[in-house]
Every structure is written in C-alpha cells, then in structure tokens.
Fold this protein.
Amino acid sequence: MLFNSLIFTVFLPIVFIGYWIIPQRFRNYFLLIASYYFYFTYNPYFLLLLIGTSAFDFWCAKQIQNVPDRKKLYLYLSIVSNIGVLAAFKYSAFFFNSGVQLINNASGSSYSLMESLIIPAGLSFYTLQSLSYTIDVYRGKYKPNDTLYDFLLYVSFFPHMVAGPIVRYNTLMPQLKAVSYFKNIDWGSLARLTIWGYFKKMVIADNLSEVVTQVFNEPQYYNGFQFLLAGAMFVIQVYCDLSGYSDIATGVAKLFNINLSLNWRRPLLSSSLQEFWTRNHISITTWFRDYLYIGLGGNRVSYTRWMFNIFLVFLISGLWHGANFTFVIWGAMHGTMYLLEIFVKKTFPSFKAPRMIGWLYLLSFHTLSLIAFRANSTADLSYMYRHIFSTEFFGHNVFSLFQSGSQCWMLFFLCLFLFVKEFNEEFALINRFPLLYKNLKPAFYMILVWILFMIGDFNANTFIYFQF
Amino acid sequence: MIKKALIYVVCFTIGLYALRYLHWKGLLTQKQGYYAKYRTAFLEKNDFDVLFLGSSRVAMHYNTALFDSLTGSNSFNLSLSGATPRVSLAVLKAYLQNSALPKCILLETDLHNVNVDGDIMEFNNYFPFFKNKTLLDEFDKIDPRMKYFYYNAFYSWPYTGYRNLNTSLHSWLGINGKIDDRFYKGYVRNDYENGSCLKLAKPYTAGFTAMNGKCFQEIITFCKQNNIQLILVSSPMFAGGKIDLLNKQQIVTIVDAYAEINELQHWNLSSTPYCNQRGLFIDHFHMNYKGARLFTSKLAYLYSNNCQKNALNP
C-alpha cells in the first residue's frame, strides 16, 4: 500500500477513526494490527519475516539485560540476524553473480548467474531501526523494559516503516506509551506537511521522473549535455521523492499525536558536502554515524584510520542503497570528495569560498554523483561519463529529451518553485511580514492542492527508496 | 476548528470547479486545432455532404481541402485518435445530435485496430465536449467513468494532464499551438518525411472483436435506415519494411464480406503500389502530407466516378 494509492485513502481514515474511538489501553494494539495490515498488502509472507526479526531483536535485547556476562554474544546474534537477512535478500545475488562473472572472465567458462530475489519492502529500514535498539541496549543507553507489543509497534509503526525516517527508540517509544488526546492533534502542521509532501512527490518528482527514466533507460539516444540535465533533474526528483515521503509520513503520524524526527533540512541549499550530509536524509546519516562510524572508532583513532573510517562508511552507505556497483561508485565518490574537503579545510584553514560558489560546486558534484546512483549498470555509467567529459558534449538538439516545449517549461517552473520555497524557508523571508504570512499560508496550500489535482501524477508510482 | 475546515473545503471545491470551467472554456474557444475540430463536430450545427469516419489514419490521410476542390463537395474529417468501430459509431451519433445528415460517409476500416474495444484513446480530450449529451451517453456506454468525469471535478482533474492545460492557456492567450494551423476541417497535415518514425512494432494478428463487428454492422444499418451512402475504405498501410499486421489479407476478406452482404462498395487501397514508398509515410500506419495528397486524389477520383452522382443527386 503506497501513500499515493487509492487504497491508502480508505485505509487511513479507518485507522484514524478506529484509533480515536477505542479506549486508550487498546490503541497501540490497534495501531500494531493496522501497521501489520499495511505491510501485509505488500507481501503477506514477508510479514512473518518482519515479525520474526523484530521479535528476535526484542529477545536479544532482553537477554543483553538479563545475562550481562554474555551480552556481547546476544548483540552479535542480533547483528548477524539482521545483517544476515539483509544479505540473504538484498546482496546474495549481487555477490554470487559478481563472483561468477569474475570466474567466467578469468577462466572463459560460462557458469550461469543467479536470479535476484524479491526484496521485502522496507527491509533496509526496519532492520536498521531494530538493530539500533539492541545496540543502544548493549551500550546501556536504555533498559529493555517494554512489552513485546510495544517493541513490535516501535519497529513497524506504519507511517515510517517502509521508507523511513528511522526513528530512535527514545524519540518514538515515549510517545507511543504516552496518553494522547484528540484535541492535541496539530492539524495545521499535519495539513501543511502532508500537502507539501504529496506535492513534492506527485507533482514535482513524478513529472520529472518521466524524462529522467527515459534518459537513463536508453542512454544511447542522448548526449553529454542531456545526461547532465537529466542528472540535475534526478537530483531534484530524488530529493522530492524521499523528502516527500518523509513529510507525508510525519504528517500522517501526527494524526496519532506522534512526532517523527526531522529527516531533511533543505540539503540542496548546502554549500559543501559536509554541510550537505548534516541536512540530507538525517535519520540515515545519523544512524551510520552513531552505529557504524563510532563503532569503527570514529575520530578517536589515528589520522589515517579516521580517513579510512569515513571512506568505509560512505562505501557501506552506498552499498546499503542497493546491490549494484553503481551505488558503490556513488558512495566512493562521496567518500573521496568528503575527505578532500577535510583536507582542504585542514590545509587552508582560512579559506572560505563564497556561499554561491560553494552551492554551485555542491550541486555540480551531487549531479555527477547521482548519475552514478541512477545509472542502470556500470556500462551505462561509463557511457554517460565518457559523453559528459568529451567533445561530444552537445548533440544536435539538446532539448529533445522533453516531449514538448510545455513539458520543458512546466518542469522548469516546478523546479524554480521548489527552490523559491526552500529559499524562503531557509532565510525565513516571508516570516518578516507576519500579517501577510498568516493570511497567505492557507491560500498557498490550497493552491498547492489545486496544482496537485491539475498536474499531479495519480498513477500511484512507487517511491524511489522502496527499492532499497 | 470544524467550521474553519469546512470553509477551506468549500472554498477549495468551488475553486476546483471554477478552474475547470476556465480550463474548459479555453479549450472550447480554441480557434484552430484538435479542440476546434471537436467543437465543430460535437457542439456546432453543420451541414456537411461527406463525412470521413475512423481513427488518426483518417485524420492524416483524408485531406478535406483537396477532396473538396476535386469533387466540389463539402466534406468533414470526423476522425478521433484510436477510434474503433465502436467509438466511430458513438462519434457519428454525437455529431448528428446538432448536425444534418450527410449524404455520404466514407468509413475507414482501420484494419489494424479492429481487435481493440472498450478503450477511448485520450478520453480526457473530450471532457469539455460532454455538453453534447449524446457523446456523453455513448462514451459512457463504452467506459462507464465518463459521467463521473463530467460531473465530478475531483475525478476529472487528475486525468487532465499538463498538455491539455497548456492548450487551454494558449487559447486564453490567443496564441496558436505548434500544429494548430495544420488543421483544416478535421484533416491534420503531417510534414514528417522519409518515414522518420518508422519503427517495427511487435508483429501481431488482428481480428474483429464481437463488439466491433456488431458496431460495424450497426453503422451500416444506421446509414441504410437514414438513406446515407456508405463506402468502406481501407487506406494505405506501409508495406516497404517488415509487416506488423500479419493477417491483413484475412481482415480485408472479412470487410469484403461485410460489403457484399450489405451491398456496399469497399475501396481497398491498403496495398497500392505507393505503399512501398517510405517517403510517403510517417510510420507503419500513418501517411504524411505527400502520401495524403496522393491517397486523397485517388479517393476523390473513385468518389467522383462511383458515387458522387448518386450521393449528391439521390
């Protein structure tokens, strides 16, 4: 069930009404059943996997507390089970096929490749969320005093289960346990988040996707400039798709008086890669920082090891996104550039590029790296980079990737609109005129919904991160 | 809180309908182009002698200006993209709601398309023309969502698409679209040359569905009852490359049988020698301007020699 599907418009009101009419003590049970039904609609069999892995993590966490002498063992059990499930479903075909191809190339034999398995929806997200709990219990951050039902709900709370944001235990659990009142629902921010989220997804991301998909699926028909243009559009598409999902999830969670953590802080306005990673997909970034980077020793190690740690985290985060070398290349590009920034900062401490230059640098690099992220294969990627960095940069008709002039203009204005809104939020421009702000706000969101109806894509396209 | 929400909902709904009104108004007042053609066909009173009925092949092949100049008739190209016999029947009935009976109808057999029914291609283009009650009722029989589209703005907007909006905006601003000036009485001139869009589709076989067969017969019966001369025409299909439609001859035979049983003429021009000339086609099914001229000249010749006398002076 997707947020932008018709069935969700039936599911959500039923869950909302059901939640608020039943007594408080049964609400979390009800929410758990609703969340499982939400997941059940993707694939009934994988629901068992979700229940199984989260129940096992719950047991491990309990054992970490109850048997302190063997707490390391239970932590490893939890890590192995989660990573094992991820590896089995997501990476087994990738590693197996990479090995087979190596052997085939070396020996000239032709061993057959393995078919990719169907990846359970949201696997990468809920395993990380569940794992963060056992690691935190191991580190003594919390005591596992909850019931199994509470924990299962913490992992599977439907607004964020499939594509984040990954919410930490200390953020979500107290809210799930607290007594909530209907009158406390923050309707204003709920409506704003949801409308803006749907607008970003269905109007901006889905319309951009039409052009982007066509270019990346048939790169042989396009030239270097068009690859760059499609890459730039993909930058905005990814941002709108992912942040759109997070905004909708945050808005929907507010129906149950739950505040999910902030996941995006206008990353496309960053002026360096370091700043970008403090604003982009915050819940994932902080997860990798807290549980992987710090686990590797963070910056309390030698300079070389520290650099290695940073690079490794980026490589792994690339691989986390998908089992393909293109994602690894994307991770490596970000790791390398991040280290370069550190190097420049250390070597020239007084150097500070103008913000505009920094912003252009960030967008250019992000565009180039996301071409790697989006390319269907390394062969396609190599083809695209060769055309971008060659004399064949311009073809005959650079705008032929658009179906019509009207599509080109529409996409241009949508992107411009996004940047103006983000810019306004970043610098709180309209807030300087409180009266205007107060009166314009409802009209602005109403216009967004009108536009959503007029040019939104209602085909229930999946969100990009569902594939991860 | 509830009062405020209610006010927002009401304002939103009124706004949505108002926007749709403005959008449709723009489409309905288009001076030239597809929507101007639909306006003429479905909302205006007409008195055309000859109608060309069929799919986009008719729109591009049947050059009304040339036909009129060669035959001295007053023809109109009443074609709709992807029209099947079922859609063509609906279109004919809708046309006749406001207009006078024609003397002659040239019905394109669209050999490649008779295996499809239940679909109205690009149906969102016709929403503003559902003021024509017959069109609405007939299309609703084919696709029962049509009445919801017409009356419910919440349902029709998501199907509208930015291309339609763009056309409406152009109309409001009084600017012609790129291809608008290529229209003349329903015919649309296509200037692509040398088969620039010729791509081999997956080869397939087609055959009349029961529904299309029934509607085909219904058009024939309707014309008989109203004393309209009906000619079946199979216009050219590209034959210079690999053939997409594998059983074309089989369908031609079926059409011939229809013609024989109902005592109609079937002008089969689908395999004339110039069908091999790439320079006359845009793709496998559509001819360009040059091809259309050649075809229409032949059509006018056949028309003048075989039926004009009967059609114009019954």
About this structure: Chain A touches chain B through 16 residues (CB under 8 Å).
